[in-house]
Amino acid sequence: MSASPESLDLARAAAHAAADKLAEEIIGLDVSEQVVITDVFVVCSGSSERQVSAIVGGIEGDLIKEHRRKPLRREGERDDRWVLLDYGDVVVHVQHAEDRAFYALERLWRDAPVVDLQVEGAGA
Q1: Could you name the CATH architecture of 5-115?
Q2: pLDDT beneath 50, residues of the chain
Q3: Are the beta carbons of 58 and 17 closer than 8 angstroms?
Q4: pTM attached to this predicted model
Q5: What angle do CA 67, 39, 88 make, to 5 degrees?
């Protein structure tokens, strides 16, 4: 079983919102086979805490406006180094570039298929 079409649509919307805020290395991972609580991880990075915050704000704003979806949970806003937005079927990780290199989520979830987010320049 793979991610639902609704999950893929929401992941693509989050990726596009992140790209609008100049997020780097945007990637989607279909974790529906490995994790029972979500379908897709969207991972992206910013070069500073300010940019991480702007990316998070852009994603939240676009998903509320276009999909009427608010995150169920938000984690990591205090430091703006790694902010997690949990939408249930999609979890968005916005990381500072240094933290992303250190934690290497793509390596941790390397068995998960990459999702085509339909964002120019997106991918591993």
Answers
A1: 2-Layer Sandwich (3.30)
A2: 124
A3: yes
A4: 0.93
A5: 50
